[in-house]
Amino acid sequence: GSDFSPRGKSDGEIMRFCQAFMTELYRHIGPNVDVPAGDIGVGSREIGFLFGQYKRISDAFENGVITGKGLSYGGSLIRPEATGYGAVYYTCEVFKHQNDNIEGKTFAISGFGNVAWGVCKKIAELGGIPVTISGPDGYVYDKDGIITKEKIDYLLEMRASGRDRCQDYADKFGVPFFENQKPWGVKVDVAMPCATQNEIGLQEAKQIIANGTKYYIEVANMPTTEDALDLFMDTEGIIVAPSKAVNAGGVCVSGLEMSQNSQRLSWTAEEVDEKLHNAMIAIHKNSVKAAEKYGLGYNLVAGANIAGFEKVAEAMMEQGIY
Amino acid sequence: GSDFSPRGKSDGEIMRFCQAFMTELYRHIGPNVDVPAGDIGVGSREIGFLFGQYKRISDAFENGVITGKGLSYGGSLIRPEATGYGAVYYTCEVFKHQNDNIEGKTFAISGFGNVAWGVCKKIAELGGIPVTISGPDGYVYDKDGIITKEKIDYLLEMRASGRDRCQDYADKFGVPFFENQKPWGVKVDVAMPCATQNEIGLQEAKQIIANGTKYYIEVANMPTTEDALDLFMDTEGIIVAPSKAVNAGGVCVSGLEMSQNSQRLSWTAEEVDEKLHNAMIAIHKNSVKAAEKYGLGYNLVAGANIAGFEKVAEAMMEQGIY
Amino acid sequence: GSDFSPRGKSDGEIMRFCQAFMTELYRHIGPNVDVPAGDIGVGSREIGFLFGQYKRISDAFENGVITGKGLSYGGSLIRPEATGYGAVYYTCEVFKHQNDNIEGKTFAISGFGNVAWGVCKKIAELGGIPVTISGPDGYVYDKDGIITKEKIDYLLEMRASGRDRCQDYADKFGVPFFENQKPWGVKVDVAMPCATQNEIGLQEAKQIIANGTKYYIEVANMPTTEDALDLFMDTEGIIVAPSKAVNAGGVCVSGLEMSQNSQRLSWTAEEVDEKLHNAMIAIHKNSVKAAEKYGLGYNLVAGANIAGFEKVAEAMMEQGIY
Amino acid sequence: GSDFSPRGKSDGEIMRFCQAFMTELYRHIGPNVDVPAGDIGVGSREIGFLFGQYKRISDAFENGVITGKGLSYGGSLIRPEATGYGAVYYTCEVFKHQNDNIEGKTFAISGFGNVAWGVCKKIAELGGIPVTISGPDGYVYDKDGIITKEKIDYLLEMRASGRDRCQDYADKFGVPFFENQKPWGVKVDVAMPCATQNEIGLQEAKQIIANGTKYYIEVANMPTTEDALDLFMDTEGIIVAPSKAVNAGGVCVSGLEMSQNSQRLSWTAEEVDEKLHNAMIAIHKNSVKAAEKYGLGYNLVAGANIAGFEKVAEAMMEQGIY
Amino acid sequence: GSDFSPRGKSDGEIMRFCQAFMTELYRHIGPNVDVPAGDIGVGSREIGFLFGQYKRISDAFENGVITGKGLSYGGSLIRPEATGYGAVYYTCEVFKHQNDNIEGKTFAISGFGNVAWGVCKKIAELGGIPVTISGPDGYVYDKDGIITKEKIDYLLEMRASGRDRCQDYADKFGVPFFENQKPWGVKVDVAMPCATQNEIGLQEAKQIIANGTKYYIEVANMPTTEDALDLFMDTEGIIVAPSKAVNAGGVCVSGLEMSQNSQRLSWTAEEVDEKLHNAMIAIHKNSVKAAEKYGLGYNLVAGANIAGFEKVAEAMMEQGIY
Amino acid sequence: GSDFSPRGKSDGEIMRFCQAFMTELYRHIGPNVDVPAGDIGVGSREIGFLFGQYKRISDAFENGVITGKGLSYGGSLIRPEATGYGAVYYTCEVFKHQNDNIEGKTFAISGFGNVAWGVCKKIAELGGIPVTISGPDGYVYDKDGIITKEKIDYLLEMRASGRDRCQDYADKFGVPFFENQKPWGVKVDVAMPCATQNEIGLQEAKQIIANGTKYYIEVANMPTTEDALDLFMDTEGIIVAPSKAVNAGGVCVSGLEMSQNSQRLSWTAEEVDEKLHNAMIAIHKNSVKAAEKYGLGYNLVAGANIAGFEKVAEAMMEQGIY
Q1: F95 within some domain
Q2: Same domain, F98 and F237
Q3: pLDDT surpassing 90 at residue C38
Q4: Which pairs count as long-range contacts for F149-157, CB under 8 Å and 24+ apart, including other chains?
Q5: CA atoms of E117 and E87, how far apart (whole Å)
Q6: What's the Cα-to-Cα distance from F213 to each of F118, F184, F252, rounded to whole Å?
Q7: Are E126 and E163 contained in the same domain?
Q8: DSSP secondary structure of C300-313
Q9: E14-48 pLDDT per residue, tens
Q10: 6-25 in D: which are within 8 Å (CB) of F?
Q11: Are residues F308 and F173 part of one domain?
Q12: Are residues F63 and F106 in the same domain?
């Protein structure tokens, strides 16, 4: 890592920083060694500069060394949508397990960034109705659903503007905006925190439960505080899906990006989407099996932890220790 | 190679030996260099320890460097079944060539290990009837066929017990056991030695011929002594398939394991099985063509030798000599 | 490059030259670095010798390091046909764009080598009628079309003979031969120069235009002189397709050969052909879009230049500069 | 680094730990990269195990990768004596600068380990008189000096015994032992703390000054607390030499070990000793020049800091920044 | 090479250019591969930046990869003086061969840069008398000789000023300055062109010969035009020494710099100087022997060519051809 | 190794074989890995071809990778004389131990090749008198000693002629030749077998003992059969020196060649000779000490074995085991 802050830096400064950083990093990574990916503050612009320097020094087009690449040098289709799509696919598996389905279900969603965008897009495609998005300025309630192409595309536009406000959506589409509030007071079938770590504390949890929400699906990285999560787990009638499993779609498509790089091929969006879908089905299934194996019923939180631990532990034991 | 005997060694000793061995071997192998695979005495446990040390030293997850891996770190589905399945696929090609088919055919099989298990499983699936298995203690005759899931799974259990006796099968399923005898006296359509090198001598060959067996399919590595093979080849009315071609399924799926590793993907069992099937069809076809090209008729032994030699010779000549 | 002339050299001398050349070249190439391919004077024999030496020195079977390989060590099916097939696929896209199709169309083709052979084979397969081929000695006019397997195969035979005359075709199939003339006087729907650089000068261009030819499809590398190309572009009613796009099929299948090498698989001819077809469709489509984006209408020459430039420029900018 | 404690571990455990440690470390070091050396807890036994594993994995006899090696695989003569000898050479330069010399000078020395041993040996050789050594149990006062071979060799024996007591010396040679006291009350010309960090606090400093000691020579790593050092610096008539410069002999001979490894030669003890001597002369001279350049007079503490900083800063600036 | 002009560039721009250049160059050089050195426009500043980037990318302190380094990171003493000193040593060998010596000999020298400075310094040290230097503005005649430390040091000062005028010397030391003239009209024993290529044309040669100069010693790279050289060679009574041999001292000390880097040692100025001296003696001796072997007498021009050619040819033949 | 016989091969064939051999070998050797040297059938011609190919493939001038090189690319002076000189230096140490010296001592020498030449040259230089040489055709007895430059140089000439006869010496210098006899019947002070393995059997040993020879110095590799060696060891009054120690000079100067390569320097003949001399003194001394340590007296055979074993065992133990 580094303590460089890109705030207020020119494109040239960003580029030179990325190049200097990679000049040291390049010897520690590789398509078969460690494969960094973008994250907060490291978007496609930075990935491009980083990969360019890696290529320059290594004198090789080993584009599997990094993921989140632009399409012109080995990126994957569906990479931006991956986390959102994956979360919805996982949710559908939960529905299926409960003999339920997504048709007409309402969703409260926090955030309006990349993840929320992907979530809305896929929910809409499959017949669900996302009714909220939120930002640092408050939340929007769109009872007709964020389901038209125009609305969904507008999320991208809002994000690109850099203004970091979701009131713009309310203004544009004439729907109510609730300043400085979170969307969890809205009565929905599914609550999907998609914004940030710890956004759901005890208070929000109580609200969600009080609303009679049936599905609590974590999408952001660990969006629930420990006490809130305990409350959810102790409450009957609400199913909890942990972010660890739900948001695996991003990492999954990073892996598929690497597969395409290895094959020197680019898959169509449909191929990537299908593989992502299958991966999310498998993740849900493995969690279910793991929880059942230890007599824990349909406990997705425990199941994800157990399945993850067993996989790593088995691989370690099989490969020997020092 | 090494002269280390794993007999009586603890898991820790086995692990340390594998690690020490790989510490020297690692510099001579690689996914594009030489790719070792398990064999007698080197099962999945050893492969895991070997690969773990390779990964540790090379600091890279180059799992195509070795085959026969566990599923948790890059192994292939259908790898255990590969040799047996491949042998049956090849046999079906022989039937097809003779305008014959597997439906209702009886098979005498020696051995009860991994290969025999795969053979029985696939024969049963395709409608044939394996009626014998054998061990160092004698052979079992099961006239109803080793065709139920229970019976086939029991072969694995017998092998895992480490007792190395096949009488257990007779005891469990109430079928006759013939102590200290080989199964070649049983009248069947197809004789399939699946146990060890040189298990078919002149005496066994005469017995098989006398039984009117129509197909002699070598599955174990070179199970037939030279004089016995001469006798088979000189006898009309019996078709001989050489182990060199018949048991190629194991190596074939090792190659498919490498392909999956290269692609950073895991194929489904169905995909692997289909590719294995196609490979066996091609092997049979190339042998047939090679024998015909030299006017030798439907001689699978000669065909396999010729096709193999031509392939290697052509590749060598094309790539130049010193 | 090198100034070695293979004329009059023995096989052994060719081999030793190729080995010496690769002994210096090998350190500058690699499957992820630079990947040479055959060209004029470097056929499959030379590729074999070059790859053999690379393998010997690198001690690795990295066959993605070079393309145009023989099938025994990693070459691709459809590689010989690739340029010709690709050119015809591209032409069909042009037809489609014009609401036209290949059925019954007549083609004047120059050359009778590898490219012309592939072009004829695919045209015939799709229902078109190639009516000429040419050589240094003149051209052949076969009004019934070079469409039977016998005729098409004979092109290979003529080429392999090393006599470099196309009169042989006329003699064999009893069709007219025009000594020392080029085929552009023949009235056809499509003119396809497939022989050499600059074979179409101002005079030939005028002839082609005068004939009412509707499609001028460059297949050879830059077969049109600058003034002739200007004339074509300024003439209404004739569509010009540039070699840069039309003959991309060769490079495309080189890429597919590398993909197969990376996957450690060999695709069937059908799989390669389909991928080639899709690639040519995409090339045409991108050219069309690029020309339209800049308001240039259906200008395939401009479109190919723009699309190519934009792709490279975008990749460069995204990956940063020094 | 690692948190492994060698206390109570068997030789085999120590060896396996060293091997496992090097299996990870080896990729980060090299004769031209980073060169680790022994330190507290990493003696010649550990260095041997570490180097053996490095050699095994790297398949190369690159013994310049580590220093403090045994003589059988590339260690240097005078390495054990280096810190002690270097300290005395430096002290002699101080004498020379003051128009003084070592003949007959008395030295109070703390510690009785490797460093104290080397110091005593060289002082004795050059005509000085070390009169104390100390341990955790107290100090020994030997007014005749630790100057005979028998006495000096006995220091090694005491250290090797593992008893960590210096009373043994008093018992053996019939000289006074002062339990639980430090040697700084003894009136000597030169005080040389050779034991541990911060062994000289304000109290000891006052004692040393009160004794009229003329030379305070730090040998252990930073043996003086900050307030004690301030007191020394503010006191006239006592010359202070900083450990940073005085104990550089160890690192210096590590460098000479690397030179011998690079040359594939072993120098005689005399050659190493002479080079060490010259290096210590240069270190003293550079400190003197650096202090003078900034008008600080004969201030060895400031001089060492300035000379070190300037050297590093100059090398960095000359080689450019990111 | 590159077409970057450092004129008018800032230090930062120079640095970034050097770093970008090395980012591409580094893979083609190495202490055992190719070893670049400074030249016109690449002084110690640039060498520092280049080496810094090499070190950064290679993650290794391989300072033998480049020569002309600063002393802080592996440069050699006597490197700046090397060409000048070497030229004088060679000249002394010529004297010795003629039973002559340097004592009291007068030298006309052109240029006042690094080479001329080294030449003057060594001539003065050995008892000769350099009486001229020159610049683009004319030449200085100092009949007392440029032999005091003050005068010799002033040459460096003049050069560092960047004014590129040698009149300053005349002004400072009160000696005659001849504007826009070259120094070859001065009657001296030895003429030593030390400035640039082709500075001695036919006219200058005639002048030198007319003056009765006995030794014509080329120091700059090929300072004599072809016709002028022919004239010298055809004239009796004047001995000609070719630059190829005379100015080898620079390359020679580059080699010694590499030796010191390999040994991880820095030699004293005396050690380097002695090795340089011996090398120049050997160069002269080998030229003499080579000319004599072919019956050409004391012809240093032919001798240098022959000796150089034979050395390269022998090494090539011994190491085999392709 | 290889089974290629150079008999009757042309220079070109030898060269191509060497190049092909190195193309495989190069990856297993290196200046720090394994360093091959010439031996029977691999002289300087072959070493040159081998090194040339290594350099070509590795793209690096790593001449320490092989020893016995020509002087033009890194060979060492005194390399041809090394074994012979070393043997005589060792012998002189034996004399010194016995309070004896070489002055006027007579030596019987077998062989007339490289080793015998070096032995004669050094003996003559130090004042001893070699009186025999031998070949496959018999032996020469030159009672005046092979001590003049003319005689010694003639040995090289005889060897270079390829006639493999030593009668030529007798003819040329008018001394007696004894056809088909070995030289051991001649009464001398020192017997030095310098020809081949097992040339001294029981019969020769008895003859040597009967002559009252005081020193039996093996120079060839293991020239004494086991029973003969037993006889020597059991006989009082004759000192036996084993080839293992005596002929170490060749390997020693190979090591010095590597040191020079590492330093990028060439030492003078005097420097190499002195280092060789010191090494032989040390070898003798270590053998003496090792034998004494185990109470075996002046037993050079046991001493060499013990010293060698201890050195290897110590290095192995210190560097850890698996």
Answers
A1: yes
A2: yes
A3: no
A4: F151/F120, F152/F117, F152/F120, F152/F121, F152/F124, F155/F112, F155/F116, F155/F117, F155/F120, F156/F117
A5: 12
A6: 22, 10, 29
A7: yes
A8: HHHHHHHHHHHHHH
A9: 999 999 999 999 999 999 999 999 887 898 999 99
A10: 15, 18-19
A11: yes
A12: no
Helices (H), E60-113: 82-97
Residue C240 lies in a domain: no
Measured over all CA atoms, what is the biggest interatomic distance in chain D, rounded to whole angstroms? 65
Three-state DSSP state, D271:
helix
User: Looking at beta carbons, which residues of chain A come within 8 Å of D57?
Assistant: none
- CA dihedral sign, ordered B136, B141, B146, B152: negative
Q: Where are the beta strands (DSSP E) in chain C?
A: 106-109, 129-130, 132-135, 138-141, 177-179, 190-192, 215-217, 239-241
Q: Nearest CA of chain F to the CA of E260: how many Å? A: 8
Name chain B's partners: 3 or more CB pairs within 8 A: A, C, D, F
C80 secondary structure, DSSP code: T
B112-124, pLDDT tens digit by residue?
Answer: 999 999 999 999 9
Structural domain of residue F39, as residue ranges? 11-73
Q: Residue D266 and residue D256: Cα distance in Å, rounded?
A: 10
Contact D56 B23 (CB under 8 A): yes
DSSP class per residue in D201-237 = -HHHHHHHHHTT--EEE--SSS-B-HHHHHHHHHSTT
Is there a contact between E318 and F73 if contact means CB atoms under 8 Å apart?
A: yes
Same domain, D53 and D89: no
Tokens coding F261: 């390569």
H helix and E strand count, chain E: 12, 8
Q: How does pLDDT run across A215-226, given as a tens digit for each residue? A: 999 999 999 999
Name the domain count of chain E: 2
The Cα F109–Cα F288 span in angstroms is 25
Q: Is D219 found in the same domain as D92?
A: yes
Quick check: F32 and D64 in contact, CB under 8 A? no
Phi, psi dihedrals of residue F149, rounded to the nearest 5°: -55, -40
Asked if F43 reaches chain E (Cβ–Cβ under 8 Å), the answer is: no
Q: Are residues B137 and B240 in the same domain?
A: yes
Q: Where residue D205 sits, what CATH number does that domain have?
A: 3.40.50.720
Residue C239 placed within a domain: no
d(CA C2, CA C46) in angstroms, rounded, equals 14
* Coil, strand or helix at C151: helix
The single residue listed with the structure tokens 């081929």 is C133
Q: What is the CATH number of the domain that holds E54?
A: 3.40.50.10860
CA distances to A19, A46, A49, D49, F300 from A12, in Å? 10, 11, 10, 49, 75
Which among D10, D51, D264, D265 is the top mutation candidate for probing chain F, defined by the most F β-carbons within 10 Å of its own β-carbon? Answer: D264
Residue F1 resides in a domain: no
Let me know: does E194 contact E188? Beta carbons within 8 Å. no
Residue with tokens 């040191």: F259
Last residue of a domain, one of F28, F47, F73: F73
- Tens of each residue's pLDDT in chain F, 322 residues: 788 988 889 999 999 999 999 999 999 999 999 999 988 789 899 999 999 999 999 999 999 999 999 999 999 999 999 999 999 999 999 999 999 999 999 999 999 999 999 999 999 999 999 999 999 999 999 999 999 999 999 999 998 888 889 999 999 999 999 999 999 999 999 999 999 999 999 999 999 999 999 999 999 999 999 999 999 999 999 999 999 999 999 999 999 999 999 999 999 999 999 999 999 999 999 999 999 999 999 999 999 999 999 999 999 999 998 7
In whole angstroms, what is the distance from residue B187 CA to residue E4 CA? 88
The residue written with tokens 């990869």 in the block is E65
The CB density around residue B85, as the number of other CB atoms within 10 Å, is: 26
- For D262, the enclosing helix (H) or strand (E) is helix D249-263
Are residues D90 and D29 part of one domain? no
Q: What is this model's ipTM?
A: 0.92
